Amino acid sequence: MKKITVSTVAVMVLALSAVPVLAAIHYFQGFETDTFDWSGVTRVSSGTNGVNSAAGAFHAEADSVAMPGTTNDFTLFGGYESTFPSGGYTTSIDIYLNVEGDFANDTRFDWSSAINQPNGNHRRDFVFNAGFYNDTDLSGSGPRFVISASTNATRSGAFPKNPDRDPFTIVETGWYTFEHHFYNAGIGVLAVDLRVTTLSGTLLHTWTLSDPTDVIGSTVGGHRYGWIVIQEFPFLAIDNVSLLSVNEANNATACKNGGWQHLTRADGSVFRNQGDCIQYVNSGR
Q1: Both 139 and 236 in a single domain?
Q2: Cβ contacts of 263 within 8 Å, gap of 6 or more
Q3: What's the rounded Cα separation, in Å, for the pair 231 and 130?
Q4: Would you write out the chain's pLDDT as a tens digit for each of its 285 residues?
Q5: Would you say 4 and 223 are in contact if contact means Cβ atoms under 8 Å apart?
Q6: Is residue 16 part of a domain?
Q7: Which residues contact 268 (CB under 8 A, 6 or more apart)?
Q8: Are 277 and 149 within one domain?
Q9: How far apart (Å, rounded) are the C-alpha atoms in residues 273 and 47?
Q10: Distance of CA 154 to the CA centre of its chain
Q11: Residue 236 sits in the same domain as residue 148
Q12: Domain extent at residue 260
């Protein structure tokens, strides 16, 4: 599939204030003040087009491109990396799915989080393939979003309803979190869990993708980009884009005074609040 190259960018650094040395957060963009490190998006206030921001007073809308074109809606997560973090990492984005939008059947978007080779070149994309449908088939009936996961994007490369890709159906309008968790699955082979959750963190569905030729340190390096490869909706609201390394919470005290924002579970998933973090430390859940 198409790869993003940005020849004009040598180094991009995200300055995060008040983040401790062992902070999990490497990159965060909530669009409260700007669209730094994003291309192809417009910052809008909460309530624009009837969508309240997932958090705060602002979010962004990703530019639409008529099919079969691809977009320039992407982030570099603060800058490419060539070394895979020892504990893995997680990228995350909140996307508003408007089931009541009355879109044409099979209107689509793809969200990819890609990884580099150790030499800094592109290795592979890991993609949520999503589409709006109002027909009737095995995926459901009436207005709904159908989502699957693959290593390809675009209409020629993927299909949300592909029965071999474990398609999942969403029938309620709202914000949903799309996470990619990159980790060592054993003997150095990369695996990626692609997860959809509610905004409150309830897990809805997981896909796991892994290729035995993706060997960490040999063919796999660090993170590359996050890219809304295709975006065929009039607007697509996004919020709270992040890249976090695995920094497992193991002390309830560390969860307090905002510390939960810099910690993760062992699988790289993030906490929604202080209580969520403390519960994990006490119960493992």
Answers
A1: yes
A2: 24, 247, 248, 249, 254, 255, 271, 277
A3: 10
A4: 544 433 322 222 333 332 333 335 579 999 999 999 999 999 999 999 999 999 999 999 999 999 999 999 999 999 999 999 888 999 999 999 999 999 999 999 999 999 999 999 999 999 999 999 999 999 999 999 999 999 999 999 999 999 999 999 999 999 999 999 999 999 999 999 999 999 999 999 999 999 999 999 999 999 999 999 999 999 999 999 999 887 788 889 989 998 887 788 887 777 889 999 999 999 988
A5: no
A6: no
A7: 87, 88, 89, 90, 181, 182, 183, 244, 246
A8: no
A9: 24
A10: 17
A11: yes
A12: 248-285
Give me the pLDDT at residue 139, please: 97
Give the single-character DSSP code of 248: B
CA 189 – CA 218 distance, rounded (Å): 10
Residues 233-262: b if buried by 16+ CB within 10 A, e if exposed: bebbbbbbbbbbbbbebeeeebbeeebbbb
Which residues, in sequence order, are CB contacts of 5 under 8 Å at separation 6+? none
Both structure tokens of 2: 């198409």
pLDDT computed for residue 22 by the predictor? 36
**Residue (of 49, 54, 86) closest to 174 by Cα position:** 54
User: In a 10 Å sphere around its CB, with 0-12 CB exposed, 13-18 middle and 19+ buried, how is residue 231 labelled?
Assistant: buried
* Of 97, 101, 191, 91, residue with least CA distance to 147: 97
Eight-class DSSP state of 187: T
The verdict on 112 and 239 lying in the same domain is: yes
- The tokens describing 74, both together, are 């992407």
What is the tally of structural domains in the chain? 2
Examine residue 4 and state whether it is found in any structural domain, yes or no: no
Whether residues 207 and 279 fall in one domain: no
Is residue 173 exposed (0-12), middle (13-18) or buried (19+ Cβ within 10 Å)?
A: middle
